[in-house]
Design brief:
Elements (H helix, E strand, L loop, with lengths): L1 H27 L14 E8 L12 H5 L1 E9 L2 E11 L2 H10 L8 E4 L2 H6 L4 E2 L5 H13 L7 H7 L7 H17 L2 H11 L8 H14 L3 H14 L6 H15 L15 E19 L3 E20 L3 E14 L7 E13 L4 E10 L6 E13 L2 E10 L12 E13 L3 E12 L2 E15 L2 E10 L4 E12 L5 E11 L16 H5 L4 H10 L2 E13 L4 E12 L17 E11 L7 E10 L3 E13 L4 E14 L5 E15 L3 E16 L2 E17 L1
Antiparallel strand pairs: 1-3, 1-4, 2-3, 2-5, 6-7, 6-27, 7-8, 8-9, 9-10, 10-11, 11-12, 12-13, 13-14, 14-15, 15-16, 16-17, 17-18, 18-19, 19-20, 20-21, 21-22, 22-23, 23-24, 24-25, 25-26, 26-27
Helix pairs in contact: 7-8, 8-9, 9-10, 10-11
Length: about 700
């Protein structure tokens, strides 16, 4: 049996290695580009296309851009004018593709085109230079200053003109990842992450991300990019906390471009900075149900109060920060207890001189073998720029509700972050052990693999329990963007459900602690119960998204899942497996149909599960009434046929969500709707109506 399990683990590991090799082959293979048939012998590389004029100062200092003629053209498509950046000229497509390979890092969607005689003759007037003197930089700077009253440079626009939305928690996570990349010396990765943050508007990280993006460019020797970001920062935040630092850095870059006269002045050390920010929210939640037999019943009437605050102090030598995310649930019905919650409460410390960092308190971690929220400590040491060692220990936390710490269950582990290698690969290897009531709860080893390249990405995780000799998790997730901007995504997910541990033996028992269960059963019997109460879940997903034109895109996916059953044992009844369940969905997404920032979605989904077959139609629209008010009407239809008794169920769910922004830091939210269900079985009728309401506000400080 052990040999069979080990063989399965080796096969899983071989599958991971195979997928990695496939991505390496893809990475090393050139992308074939379409060649329009134009009667001329000249070829050029279409580096990129833009919806607005090209900011020449942000162009990279690639050697090929200096060696060949760099020029711009204009092209109309579907009534909209596009600006193309091209590099020429080449005698044949093969020569162009050879040079295109060297530019993939900067222009991942470049393609080769044949040019007309007219374009060739006009290219002299439209040619530009990269880092070839002060002319381009001065013209770009004058142009930005001249239009600053109505337009900003491309760099500045990303901070104020984006239309995307994202949660503050997600933005904070991206900022933490970028900060970690800066600490590791991965400046290009950090620049990509800060750029992503700046794609979203109206959040507290904008100013900090703008400054740090310039610093990331500066440290990766992309001076033109850094100067553009520093100028954008000073234009947007002339009196910001970092304005003085940014002016010094910009002055240093400008001075470095000229020959020093005698001796460069020593740059001043940035002063320590302190930040305190957070938010507070209150929401009223109400759920009500109506049936023909029972009448109206209020199932929920409560007020959720949530609060978070962050403190951060930075100096050239160290950084100290702390985070508190807490809440209080007030039940107005009196049928349940009021609940106090602490989701996170920790202190962070980073010593740049010792390359040492630590976090102490309630925190969450999903790497290095840790399975989520815990109370404990994490210590990291940056041994080499590409090698970081981590030590973690603590008590798992099942719920954020204040119930004290269960000291009977604890874990400790080590891990190492390795990378980035070959500019694209990052790895993590770990070993972790968890105990409960003095016996082994979980003992696992594993690895994570991350690959990122513009247009392609891969994540893989393997977790193997060496105590139970069982494969706990095998996960493969990949994304691939094709030259026509079609995005293909796929995942293979196998895991124990829940994660295999001796604590699983408590499922269905009359006791809450493993120590109490050990008074009834032997240790060996408890482990057998744990294995019986652990199912195996597997799923496969394949999806794609393709733009149809400037306003519409279509997406679809197919998913198949399977969860095994669990045998009867220890007084717990048998749990049947689900068998193979299939899910199909397709969506048509339109944007900018009435206003530039509106979005409309029409979706169709079919589910073939062990209990029923369901067809769902979903209509969803997000429409900005003005800059402060956004509405989101939704309508969903479900038609199900239940396998057990042949019942037919039809559901209609209309709802409306509205967001009103007041003075940028306060947002009022409303969401309400109803679900009408009509069920027919054996000639009998059973109708019901459910209502829900959520109303409140969120204030940031």
């Amino acid at each position: 049996m052990v040999n069979l399990l080990c063989t399965q683990a080796l096969r899983a590991l071989a599958a991971v290695i195979f997928v990695i090799l496939v991505f390496i082959v893809i990475e090393s293979s050139p992308v074939r580009a379409a060649e329009p048939s134009v009667s001329t012998g000249r070829y050029a590389i279409n580096l990129a296309s833009y919806a607005e004029e090209i900011d020449t100062e942000r162009l990279p200092r690639a050697e090929a851009l200096k060696k060949y003629r760099l020029y711009t053209t204009r092209h109309k498509e579907d009534g909209k004018e596009w600006y193309r950046l091209r590099l020429g000229f080449f005698i044949d497509a093969k020569s162009a593709k050879k040079v295109m390979k060297t530019l993939r890092m900067h222009y991942p969607e470049a393609w080769v085109a044949r040019v007309t005689d007219g374009e060739w003759s006009r290219s002299r007037k439209m040619s530009i230079r990269v880092a070839g003197g002060a002319s381009i930089a001065k013209k770009a700077a004058k142009k930005a200053v001249k239009k600053s009253s109505v337009k900003m440079s491309v760099a500045a626009k990303s901070a104020t003109g984006g239309t995307k939305t994202i949660s503050k928690k997600r933005l904070g996570a991206i900022m933490e990842s970028a900060e970690e990349a800066m600490t590791k010396g991965k400046y290009r990765l950090a620049a990509e992450l800060y750029t992503k943050v700046l794609e979203y508007k109206g959040h507290k990280f904008s100013e900090e991300a703008r400054e740090l993006l310039g610093l990331a460019y500066e440290r990766s020797n992309r001076g033109a990019h850094a100067r553009a970001e520093y100028r954008a920062y000073l234009m947007l935040y002339p009196k910001g906390d970092g304005a003085k630092r940014v002016r010094q850095r910009l002055a240093g870059l400008e001075t470095a471009r000229a020959k020093p006269k005698k001796k460069l002045r020593k740059r001043k050390v940035a002063k320590p900075s302190t930040q305190v920010y957070g938010s507070f929210s209150q929401f009223y939640n109400r759920d009500e149900s109506y049936t023909d037999l029972g009448g109206n019943v209020v199932t929920n009437s409560s007020v959720s109060n949530d609060f978070d605050i962050s403190y951060r102090k930075r100096t050239p030598e160290y950084e100290l920060s702390s985070v508190l995310i807490a809440g209080y649930e007030l039940d107005l019905l009196g049928s349940a207890e009021n609940v106090s919650r602490i989701s996170r409460l920790y202190v962070d410390m980073l010593d740049r001189r010792l390359h040492l960092s630590g976090r102490l308190g309630r925190q969450s971690r999903s790497t290095g073998g840790v399975l989520g929220r815990f109370d404990g400590a994490l210590v990291s040491y940056q041994y080499f720029p590409r090698v970081k060692f981590n030590v973690v220990a603590g008590y798992p936390v099942e719920t954020s509700a204040l119930k004290g710490i269960d000291t009977e269950r604890y874990f400790y582990g080590i891990s190492a972050d390795l990378g980035t290698y070959a500019e694209n690969w990052d790895f993590n290897v770990f070993a972790i052990e968890q105990k409960n009531a003095g016996i082994i709860d979980r003992r696992a080893v594993g690895a994570e693999v991350r690959y990122y390249h513009p247009g392609r990405s891969l994540f893989s995780l393997i977790d193997y329990d060496i105590f139970y000799n069982e494969l706990n998790t095998l996960l493969l997730v990949g994304n691939w963007t094709l030259p026509d901007k079609t995005i293909i995504n796929s995942s293979i997910d196998y895991r124990k459900s829940p994660t295999l541990s001796t604590t699983n033996a408590l499922s269905g028992q009359m006791v809450d602690k493993l120590s109490d269960l050990l008074d009834i059963w032997s240790e060996e019997e408890v482990r057998s119960l744990a294995e019986d109460r652990t199912a195996e879940s597997s799923s496969f997903m394949l999806g794609a998204t393709r733009p149809l034109n400037e306003k519409f895109q279509i997406s679809g996916d197919f998913t198949v899942t399977d969860i095994t059953g669990m045998p009867a044992s220890g007084g717990v009844a048998v749990v049947p497996g689900s068998g193979h369940e299939y899910f199909y969905s397709v969506q048509l997404i339109g944007s900018g149909l009435i206003k530039p920032t509106d979005t409309s979605i029409v979706g169709l989904r079919f589910s073939d599960t062990s209990t029923s077959d369901t067809v769902s139609i979903n209509l969803n629209s997000r429409y900005p009434i003005n800059r402060a008010l956004r509405v989101n009407p939704r309508l969903r239809f479900d038609f199900s046929k239940v396998h057990r008794d042949g019942a037919k169920v039809f559901k209609v769910r209309p709802s409306l969500r509205a967001d009103y922004y007041w003075k940028r830091r306060v947002r009022f939210e409303f969401e309400g709707g109803m679900e009408m269900a009509y069920e027919r079985v054996a000639g009998q009728r059973d109708d019901s109506t459910d209502y829900f309401l959520r109303l409140g506000y969120r204030a940031e400080f």
